[in-house]
Structure to design on (233 residues):
């Protein structure tokens, strides 16, 4: 019980510290999009690495993150740790980008400001004008930021099952509209359980599988091939 309280206190206190750091970049009157996203990405990664170190979690990667940018990374989703684990991987590969998240997360009184000021993009799937605004913002950002990448959970919500849920169409629509390649990524662990058990006395290893770049083929079928390779389903 005390272990659980301690990790939440650590994460919340550190999160509020980083909100102040994010705001300096987010509200900077002279910074342009490219250096802004680089700085926000680095700060998100620093926060994530600090939390994983506190929880005593190590990330092992099977496969390679592409050197090129302007890629959409499609990732399975089981826990809030998913973002932290992926930011750890992106930090080791010098990647900048943004997370695509539902508007509900930005409206949260607990962590909404963290998402907003750290450079994430919100999308309201039930609002036609909201969708149009989102696609315009995405197009503008990709035009102005050379080393930009997009991170998305195509399942749309947390999945408590061992296998992946049916993907929503958003990831492929974003990729097609912006002529982006897609890279499937499978986190081969039930990170919700990992988070519940953390922090660990002995180092806990989490394995992440990175698939090949998808240019034309169907995301779902390619993703299922990656899951089979991981021996998960």
């Amino acid at each position: 019980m005390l272990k659980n309280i301690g990790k939440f206190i650590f994460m919340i206190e550190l999160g509020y510290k980083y909100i102040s750091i994010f705001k300096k970049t987010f509200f900077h009157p002279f910074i342009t999009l490219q250096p802004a996203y680089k700085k926000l990405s680095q700060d998100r990664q620093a926060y994530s690495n600090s939390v994983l170190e506190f929880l005593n979690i190590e990330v092992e990667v099977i496969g390679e993150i592409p050197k090129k940018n302007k890629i959409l990374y499609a990732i399975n989703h089981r826990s809030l740790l998913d973002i932290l684990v992926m930011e750890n991987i992106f930090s080791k590969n010098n990647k900048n980008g943004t997370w695509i998240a539902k508007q509900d997360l930005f409206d949260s009184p607990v962590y909404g400001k963290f998402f907003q000021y750290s450079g994430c993009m919100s999308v309201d799937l039930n609002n036609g004008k909201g969708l149009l605004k989102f696609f315009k913002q995405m197009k503008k950002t990709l035009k102005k930021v050379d080393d930009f990448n997009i991170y998305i959970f195509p399942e749309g919500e947390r999945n408590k099952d061992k296998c992946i849920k049916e993907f929503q169409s958003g990831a492929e629509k974003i990729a097609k509209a912006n002529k982006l390649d897609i890279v499937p990524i499978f986190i081969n662990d039930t990170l919700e359980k990992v988070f519940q058990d953390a922090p660990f006395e002995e180092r806990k290893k989490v394995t992440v599988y990175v698939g090949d770049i998808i240019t034309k083929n169907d995301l779902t079928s390619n993703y299922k091939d990656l899951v089979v390779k991981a021996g998960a389903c």
